[in-house]
Structures are given as C-alpha cells and as structure tokens.
Amino acid sequence: MEDNKIEEAKKTILIVDDEKPIVDILVYNLQKEGYETIEAVDGQMGIDLAFSKKPDLILLDIMLPKVDGLTVCKKIRNSLNIPIIMISAKDEEIDKILGLELGADDYITKPFSVRELVARVKANLRKAEINNSNKVAEVEERRPVSEEKDKTIEIGEIFINLDKFEVKVRNKPIELTLREFEVLRYLASQPGQVVTREALLEKVWGYEYYGDIRTVDVTIRRIREKIEVDTSSPKLLITKRGVGYYLSSKEKGNNS
What we know:
A hairpin with a 2-residue loop joins strand 6 and strand 7. The chain has 9 helices and 12 strands. It is of the alpha/beta class and 256 residues long. Helix 5 runs parallel beside helix 9, helix 7 crosses helix 9 and helix 8 crosses helix 9. The longest helix has 27 residues.
C-alpha cells in the first residue's frame, strides 16, 4: 500500500475548471491520494499549463471561460499524449459525444462521486503507465507472444493482453483509450454473443450513464476506425441491427 502511495506521489494532475468549490474538492481528495495538483481557471490557462508542466493526467471541464473545454481537448490531443478525463453537466450529451470524438480518454458527469472520479484517475494513469513501459520494452527486447505470461484473449485477428492493456490486430499494435479497451475487452469475453448497448452502458460505463446510448455508438465507431480494414464493411466488430454489437471470430488467417 505504501509503495503505491510513493509511486502515485510522482503523478501530477492538472485540473481545468472555473468552479472553485469543485476544484477545492478535487484538490483535497487527489492530494489525499498522494497526487500533486495544478489548477487552471480557464481554457487558455489550461492549455498553457498542459504544455509547460506536462502533467500525467488532465481533468477538463467542458464549460470554461476564454477557451471551451472541447477546444482545449483538441489542442492538447494534437500535440501531447496525456490522458484526458472530461467533466460536464448531466444534460450535455452532445458535448460528451464531441469530447469522445476529439480524443478524450474518459468522461464523467456532474454531480459525480469523488470515489468514482479517483478510481477513473487511477485507471487511466495505470493504462498510460503500462503503455509507456510497453513502448520502452519493445525497443529493448522483442519477445514472441507465446512467451508472454500475462492474461490474454485471442479472437480471430484480435489479440488482447489484459494485464498490459495491449491490443494487436493482424499483429499490429493498436492504441485505444481506456474506455475503448474496456468495451473491446468486454465484447471479447463473449465472442459471437450480441451485447446490447444498454448492457455495455451498464457493464462498462456504469449505471450513471444509463440512457446515453450514443456514447456507445461513438466509442464503437472509434474502435472500428482503429481495427477494421474497411469501416463501411466491418468484419471484426459487427452490428446486429436493432440489438447491439458483437466480435466475430471468423477472420483469423483471412487477409482480405
């Protein structure tokens, strides 16, 4: 437990939000978990601090003075590979969709549980850390998949390393956000079985997201853009019209 605290103490979280009560709550709870915090009260300040301080993760509100959160997300994502968790009011569904399309790693709505937010922070930081260590390891050592001792799932052309948050399609590494990875992993746990969008919302996003069906559609579309040869005719991640989605296992060895 102490080792985790020491490790997390090295991580810096940039909070971009103009609501002081929320910022104060986040600062208190994140520092209590051992994180360093930096605060920005408007979008432009958030952009400047992101580039000058290069934090390990950004908590980014949608509604901000000077520069809105969606623009901030786009500008940061174009240049920096930093996990971004967007924060918005419950009824701003269109902003949620746009945020995901602009490359946000995760999304949480106000009012939110501090425990839930801290859990999201830890999960996204862990994934980013594993991805970075994987890249270093790939440079230092080339090891066949057969030698890996981690938990893995192989569905047709898709290979998933659950411990390393690593996905390969046709032996090519694929970069997924944490939420995209969780959706793919859930579908891979039951290949060929159709999973409804409501079930994905409940199992992957959590009950508080119930009803935001388009969030699932956007995430599925983003996954397809990364794993399919032709998104207009998907062969791996299939839609069962009017029902939901499933992973096909029929593409192994098929290069078409």
